[in-house]
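User: Show me a protein chain along with its predicted structure.
Assistant: Here is one chain, sequence first, then structure tokens.
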Amino acid sequence: MDKNALMETTLGREDIFAGRIFDVQRDRVRLPNGKESIREVVHHKTGGVCVVPLTADRKVYIVRQCRYPYHEILTEIPAGKLDPGETPEECGRRELLEEVGAVAGKMTPLGTLFPTPAYVDEVIHMYLAEELTAASQHLDEGEFLEAEAVPLETLVEDIMAGKIQDAKTQAAILKVWYLLEKQK
């Protein structure tokens, strides 16, 4: 398969919005068939990290928080955006401490996730955090959430039943489940 045969070429760009976390641009592109089209793209400025904090007894610390665009309380794993100059692992450790109040002795990369590839260029780095030690939770100003340890098996069941809609949480939890089942 020739991947170049599927590529689109940027012909022009118009800045639509510049924000604190993301920018929006409208690109004019040439399609593989030679015709032109428009692509509206949300450029995430930093990317993000999510962490599956797994206890020795196979519980995962999740957080519940209001996600304004959906006007719902969602169940998610700890996550956040990268700060300038911060590595993904450093961000994961920071978010784990801030949101859950835990420190990981071991961080294992689980890969990256493109949450909405049709129009957003955000990359989320996923980690498994193990050998957890309790510390103090340090929520950001304006951040309101509740943390709870839930059995991994329950989270997998909730994902499969459609009770957990967050993409990063689904992907990372199912990856951890797969890794642990493979080790049996």
